[in-house]
User: Fold these one by one.
Assistant:
Number 1:
Amino acid sequence: VLVTAIADSKKPNEFVKSNSNEVVAFNYYDHHYFSEKEMNEWISAYEKLEGEKIILTTEKDAARIKLHKEFLKKHGEKIFVLPVEVKILFDEEKLFDKLIFDFVSKAKGE
């Protein structure tokens, strides 16, 4: 079971589908806050699957799912997390690092 609430869920969906026999995907709009009703839907889908199965989400979405930690503990479901990778476009990592360094230095009064 894949749960995403990100701007573009295409890559996680493709990744999971390429590595799984069966995928039940729950894709929500970006920054969606999950409800216990929705989590019950994930658990229900999970329970219907046979064989090896997991509930998987992105690192970004896991931060909002953690708000329901007690609910999930009660149901005994573990949720696995795909890490988020940040990439700077156009090979401008050094420029980005400099901008951050300059900002922090200015904020510190250096």
Note: The chain has a mean pLDDT of 90.
Number 2:
Amino acid sequence: KENIEKENNKNDDIYYFKNENDYNIILKITYPESILGLTRTIKLLNGNETKLNINSNGKIILNGDKKIVKNKGFKITNSNIGNIVIHFNIQPYSIKDFETNKEILKNILL
């Protein structure tokens, strides 16, 4: 595995690395995001940034789940292009987090 770049943000919640032709992203998310879905800005290989919108659609994201975006990874030849592989890392949930998201979680559970 080859380290590409570590995003230097306040939470260090995005980590990028290369594995063969694939552009891998380890994305730390909160417990509520794993239930409700999330939006994050990620860097693409061409240097541009794009918003990543992941809707839960009733499916909870589990720790270790992956989302694959086909043919957006490293290009070796015109017919051999890797993928973007997003690995989800669910962060521990604290009482403070529950208080912040209490109303949203209550609406989901009712």
Note: The radius of gyration is 16 Å.
Number 3:
Amino acid sequence: YHSKLMEAYKNGTLKLAKGFYGGKLTPKNASHEHIIPHSKGGRDRLSNYVLATKQLNQARDTMPFRNFVKVEPLLEYLDAILNSDCVEFDTLQYVKDIIKTMLRALREGK
């Protein structure tokens, strides 16, 4: 799948040292992670996407968000997004949108 998020990361305008769940992120191991998985009604939208290492993405599989996410890597990810020079999309709006998606995932146990 192609998205503005991955495009910005691979173009270097979105600089992320670590993925959403932690772990060193590289162009070779970066993958789209759905905050709410397809199997639980998640959609292919920027507001449901974060970048994670392939290994941690696969480790989560369809585990509920609350059972896998750790606060410190999540905050580092959001901070890096907000402090990036990304031009492919509005980073502040993206962070607001994924926070809404995370809250939904937590409320609904997804």
Note: The mean pLDDT is 95.
Number 4:
Amino acid sequence: STRHVQRRSHHRADHQVLSLLSRVADAVGPIYFLQNVFLVLISSPASRLSAINYLSRKMVIPSDDDHQGIDVGLVIRGVAAVLEDENSLVRRGGLDLLLRKLPLDGKLFM
């Protein structure tokens, strides 16, 4: 059916975008890329939902040693911008991100 073809095409496009973003992250380094995604959260309200969806899918939870290069202040400002957004889906995505990927009692914030 047409709906099935559209869904499959949308899934393929999502996969291509995620693949491209992964290649960019590999090229510039994961910490630098992650910090720029948080800059998007701060500076681009129109892109927040997409950035939150990307982080929810692809962000790796930093281990005790891996979070050393992450600018925690940037992460906090990015999350604060998301939680203040007018769009309830963006706010919900931010809360989900805090719950699943960035727990407040995690090593990143200590």
Note: The chain has a mean pLDDT of 84.
